[in-house]
Amino acid sequence: xxxMRAYFCAFSLLAMAAxxxxxxxxxxxxxxxxxxxxxxxxEQTNENYAVSEELRSDYLVIAVKNVESAELxxxxxxxxxxxxxIQGEQAILSPDTRKARERAQAAVDKxxxxxxxxxxxxxxxxxxxxxxxxxxxQLIHSQSKQTLERMVTGRTVLSTNANRLxxxxxxxxxxxxxxxxxxxxxxxxxxxxxxxxxxxxxPLLNMYRALGMDxxxxxxxxxxxxxxxxxxxxxxDSNRYGSGMTATAxxxxxxxxxxxxxxxxxxxxxxxxIAEPGTTDNETVLxxxxxxxDAARERLMRTLRDPDAAITISEKTSKLLVLMRRGNSPxxxxxxxxxxxxALMSRPDLNDPLGFGVKDVFDxxxxxxxxxxxxxxxxxxxxxxxxxxxxxxxVNSLLAWQTYTEFAVSDGWTLVSxxxxxxxxxxxxxxxxxxxxxxxxxxxxSPRLDAxxxxxxxxxxxxxxxxxxxxxxxxxxxxxxxxxxxxVNPNALRVWAYLQDGQRASVRQxxxxxxxxxxxxxxxxxxxxxxxxxxxxxxxxxxxxxGSRILGMMMSGMQGGMFGLTGTLWQEPTELLAGGLGDQxxxxxxxxxEPFVRPVSLDDRxxxxxxxxxxxxxxxxxxxxxxxxxxxxxxxxxxxxxDRTMLEFIIKPVPGWEMRGYLSDMKARPGRPxxxxxxxxxEFLDGVDAAxxxxxxxxxxxxxxxxxxxxxxxxxxxxx
Length: 720
What we know:
Blueprint: H1 2-17, E1 24-33, H2 34-45, E2 48-51, E3 59-68, H3 69-79, E4 82-87, E5 90-95, H4 97-124, H5 132-141, H6 145-153, E6 156-159, E7 167-168, H7 174-199, H8 202-210, E8 229-235, E9 238-239, E10 242-243, E11 246-252, E12 258-264, H9 266-274, H10 292-302, H11 315-324, H12 330-333, H13 339-345, H14 353-368, E13 372-376, H15 394-401, E14 405-410, E15 413-418, H16 421-426, H17 431-444, H18 449-457, H19 468-477, H20 490-496, H21 501-508, E16 513-514, H22 520-530, E17 537-538, H23 548-554, H24 573-576, E18 586-599, H25 615-625, E19 638-654, E20 657-668, E21 674-676, H26 682-698, H27 700-706
Parallel strand pairs: 2-5, 6-7, 13-15
Antiparallel strand pairs: 1-3, 3-13, 4-5, 6-8, 8-11, 9-10, 11-12, 14-15, 16-18, 17-20, 18-19, 19-20, 19-21
Helix pairs in contact: 1-3, 4-5, 4-6, 4-9, 5-7, 8-27, 17-18, 20-22, 25-26
C-alpha cells in the first residue's frame, strides 16, 4: 500500500513539475470543497487550477507551511486518487481511471480470498452431524473462479434450472437437497407447537391477515414431492440480517412453491473466519503486533506535541450538538427550533455540519502537529465527533475518525483519506439540493412531493441509507423517519423521481402506466425495490384496510416466515422477470385527499422533529402519547392545518404480484391557519375517529398491550 502511494506521489510530482512554479505555499483551510482549496493555492502561485465535475463535492482539509506547490498538488492528487492533466494554460484535476480499475480489481481479489477462507471455516467447523449450512458452503466453494468473482462483485443467482437472469449451478447438488429435505421435515414437525403458540397471539395474527398475509403459510410443510429446482441467491453487500455476504438456498417444487431454505450468513462470521490463530479483535497479527491502521495512528500521535490536547468546541458546533441530541428523548425532540438554530440548519450549502464537526478537531490537529497535513474527509465522519465527554481530547476525536478514514504518516506528511473512497463519493450529499428540500419543508410544513423528487434526482436519499449529514437534516429539521414521518416511502419515491411529467399526471389521475414505457432510471429503481426482502406480495383485489400505513411500517420485513423463507420463488426477481415484462406490467396508484396537521408551539412555530400527521397518524400518536409515553411527553395541543394528496403507489410487474408504497403531497393552506386540539375541524376529526375504529378492529392497541408497552388507553393528558 505504502509503495503504491509513493509511486503515485512520484508520478504526480513529475506531472506537476511541468506546470507549477517554484512558489512556496502556506495554507490552513477546510473542511472546504476541493475547488475552493485549489483556488486558494492558485492565488499564491499565480497558476490556474480547476477540478472536474466528479470531484467538485470532495471536501478537504489542508494545513501546510512553506511547501513547494508541486509537492502539495501531488499530495492532493494522492488523497483524491486523481491525476493532473494540462489543457492550455490550465491544470485540471480529474479521477484517475487507471487507479480506480486497479483498486476495483484489488477489492475483488481481497473479497474473493475472504469468501474462500470463510467457506473453508464453515466447512471445517462442522458439528458432529452434517448440516445444510456446511453443504451449502461446500457447494458454493466448488463453483468456478469466474463464477465466484462475479458473486463477490454483485448480487448473483445460481440455479439448477437457470434462466436468462441466472447462472447454472454446477457440482453435485444432491447432498444439499437431501439434507434440506431432512431439515425441513424436522422443522415441519416442530411447527405445530409454534403455530399453537402463535395462535395465542391473536392481535398479531389479525394484523398479519389485515396485510393480506397467511400466518399458516409462514410455517414449513413436510416435503412429500420431489424438489424440482434449487437456487442459491448470493448477496455480497447487504441484507436484512446485517452487512456482508449472505447466501440463501431455496428448494422449490414444479409449481414454484418454496419447500425449504437454508441461509448462510457469511458476513456475520467473516472477520472471525479470516482471522489467524492467536489474533485478537479479529485482526491479523503483524510482526509489530499492530494493524496497519493502529500503526499509522501511533505514528501520527508521535508527530503531535500534545496528543491529549483538549478541543475547544466552537459555538456553532455546540449548537449543532444540541440539535443532534434532540432525538434522545421525545421531550427534547418536540421542542421548537429557536431562530438561530433554524438558521444554522436551514442552509446546508452555507452552514455545512461537516465543517462544524471536523473543523474543531482539525484546528487543534493543525496547531499541534509538526507535519504537513492534507486530508479528504468523507461526510460520514460527522456521525461521531468524539465529543462524548465534556472535555474531548484530540486523541479520542481522531479515534472516532478512524471508523471512516485512514492515516498515512511519513516523510513529514500526514495524509487522511476515506477507507472506502468509492462509498465515500457515492454517499456524498448534494448540499444545494438538500437546502432546496429544506426550504420546501419550511414553506409548506413538509416538502412537496416534486421537491422530494428533485432531491432524489440530485443524488439524495441513497439506497444504502442516509449518510450522517443527510440523516441529521432529514430527521431533525424535517421530522423524517425512514419515510414514515414524512409519509414518503423511499422506494416509491425513487421511482416517482424518474417518471416523466405526463406519466406522473396519469398516476395522479388514477390511470395505470405500462412499465415498458418507463425510462431506464425508473426501471432501475423498480428493480432495486424488488430486490429488498418482503417487497413483493400477492396482489390485493380491494384497497388496504384502515391503518395500513401504520401496520406496514411496524411489520416491514416480517413476511419471510418463522422457520426460514416460505412462499414462492416468484418472490425472487430473477424468477419473476425471467420472461420479461409484458403489457400487463403496470404502475398505478389509489388516490385520496385528506387534511393533515403539523404540531406547532404556542407561538405557532413548527415543532420540526414531530412528523406531519394525517388522521391515521394522529389517531396512532394520540394513543401512544396518552399511553406508554404519557410520563415522558405531552401530546401536542396546537396544530397547523394543511391538505395532502395520498398516493398508494402500486407496481404490478406480473399478474398476481405487486409492490406497494405510500407517497404524499402536502400543501400548507393559505395563511397557514392554526387550531387548538379541541378546535380541529370536523373533516379532520371524522377521519381520526374512523382510523381509531380501524385500529381497534385490527387489534393494534391490543398488540401493544400484549408486547408489554404499558397499555395504550391511558387517561388523556392535558398540555400547557
